[in-house]
Amino acid sequence: MKTILHVSDPHFGTVKDEVRQALLNLALDQMPEHILITGDITQRARRKQFAEARLFIAKLPAPVMVVPGNHDIPLFNLVARWLKPYANYCATFGPSLEPEYESDSLLVVGVNTSRPYRHVDGEISPEQVERVARRLRQARPEQLRIVMQHHPVTAIEESDVKNLVVGREQAVPAWVDAGMDILLAGHIHLPYVKAIYGTGERSAWTAQAGTALSWRTRDGIPNSVNIIRHQAGICLFERWDFEAASGQFMLSEESDLALDH
Q1: What is the pLDDT of residues 147-159, one digit of tens each?
Q2: Which of 38, 78, 135, 167 is deepest in the core (most CB within 10 A)?
C-alpha cells in the first residue's frame, strides 16, 4: 500500500528536540510516498524559524508539500504582515501558496486558508472553492483525492467553533460533490477524524492532526501525526502519538475510511 504522512503545526521556534528526532525516525521507518504539512510551520514567521524548518525537511525521506498557516504570517511586524505577509514563507518553500501533487494513485490539492486580516480563523474564497472543485473533477477514478489546508471545517469541541474557516459551508459540499475523499487540516492541535457531506448522498472525511513537534500541546494530548495508507479503493487511517517513555511515535488509533467512489 502507498503511505502518506500528514504533519501539522510543527511551530518551529517551539520545537522539542526529542520529538523532532522521533518524527524523523518515524518517517525513515515508514518511508511514505509523500509528506503533507498543513500549516503553522513556524511560531512567528521569522527567517530563523523557517531556516530551522528547512533543515528538518531536508532530512525527510520523501517529497514534502506544504501550505501556510496563520502563524506563517508575521504577527507583530505589521508592515510585513500587510505588505509582504508570505515573504519568508516563499523564500523557504517557493512562490506557490497552493501547490498540487499528482501520481497514478494520488491527487493532492493545496488551499491557502490563511489571511493577513484574520488572525484566528481563516477563509476560503469563492474562487478557491471553484478552482479546487474543478481540479477534483479532473481526477482519475483510481486516485485518492485529498485537499489539504490549515484551518478546520468541523469542530468536536464548542470552543473550536471560532476557529472554523470562513467559507466552509460553500467549500465542503462543493468539494465532496466534486470527488474529494479526505480533507486534511490542523490549527487547533486536536486530532480527530469526522465524516463530511455533499449536497446529495456522497460523503467524505476530514482528518485533523495535532501539533507534530511543539511544546504547545493541548489538554494533555501528546504530539501526534497521521498516516494514511491507500490502495485500489482501500484507505486505512492511523494516528501516531509521541510517547515520552520510549521517545518514539507509537500507533495510537487506526480505522478504515470508507471511500464513496
Answers
A1: 999 999 999 999 9
A2: 38
